[in-house]
Amino acid sequence: MNEINANVFDMEKEQLKAALKGLAKSRNVSLSDLAVEAGVAPSTITGFINDVPGRGHYGLSAKTQGKLTDKFPEFKELIDKPPVLAQSVQVPVIGVWGADYRVTGLELGMSNNFLSDYSTNIHLYSSVLRTESFFVKNFSDKMAKSLSMDRNKIRELRYYLFKNTYNDDINTILGKQAYASCDGGTYIGFLVKKGLNIVLYNFFGEQVKSAGNVKQASAIEWTRQI
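-> structure tokens emitted (226 positions)
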């Protein structure tokens, strides 16, 4: 299982990894050889496959995927091919995660569920939709440059899934990303112990002060990109 921030399973990244491995196998070459043929640094591919910090979290850039597709047209077919859902379930969408880390209600016209393949106990989960402009604010120029991206053009919608019930002992999920009920409202962020209280931090290690203290929380366990 691929984990992000120690507790989040990214389904799309696993599909992309499977496509890379399948492509290499069909051509009877190593992943490093595949990268060289496409004009990509081998460490970019192997780092992604092995979840090397700094690569595994954000996946492969559009530029890297473009090079792979240009060299190997079948690669695009592998990653674009929709998964076959042997069983499916409607997962509730209960809010929108904004750039200020606050979770607000769904906007008019937004769907209140999405179709997912079935997995054990998936019916016990709900989700929040991250806004497509989230990373325009929450993505540093340095990080964007390292991935050959313009952060002002990053647009990605993603669902964050968590159990419908709050964790019985919040101390057991400290340091993890969570859906949290706070003094200032409902937020998603990283749980951090500060003195006698638990607060939320953002992606840059800064406290989300508008949230105040965390009262209850449920750890984010899966994500799904649209």
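The chain has a mean pLDDT of 80.
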